[in-house]
Amino acid sequence: MFYARYAKRAIDVVLAILLLIALAIPMLMIAALIRLDSRGRVLFCQKRLGLHEQPFTIYKFRTMRVDAPSEMPTRMLTGSAHYITRVGKYLRISSLDELPQLFNILKGDMSFVGPRPTLENETALTRARERENAYSVRPGLTGLAQIRGRDELLPDEKAYLDGVYVRNMSLYYDFRIVLGTVFAVVNAEGYQEGGDE
Known about the structure:
Layout: H1 2-22, H2 24-37, E1 43-49, E2 55-61, H3 86-94, H4 101-107, E3 111-113, E4 118-119, H5 123-131, E5 140-142, H6 155-168, H7 171-186
Parallel strand pairs: 3-5
Antiparallel strand pairs: 1-2, 1-4
Helix pairs in contact: 1-4, 5-6
């Protein structure tokens, strides 16, 4: 399929370059706010599984304190609110913490649309995605699961939606998912954190 093999990657590169130029000043402002709010690096780097389950380093704006556990999804972390910084709370709700992944897209680690990259220790989700052939495409900044429930979904449900995306990938489908993502972010749909006990 021409779109999947050639056009999708070309669109990713062009859009990533344009957005990095357009958002350079806002991203610098976010970086400054993070540094003013808490000690530590501006960027959070973490190993994730990408195309063909090959690990890569994902980039995010740091939203948690430096002593927070780094190899566990925040939604599974008991007392996560204790670790999230003041600036980080708003970055996470607005998904602005994901902006550095534009560099991942430019490098070829990720695409704008695709299954969200998993942590290496998310075994249940990884196995379910293997069954759905979800690792046959680049992971995405957003995906079908992000507009159909996001953190509220169980691993099998996420993997099923990832498989649906792989089987129906097209420019039109990607466009619909991007529009759905804008709507979901504005309304903070499906956003969850870990328990606060």
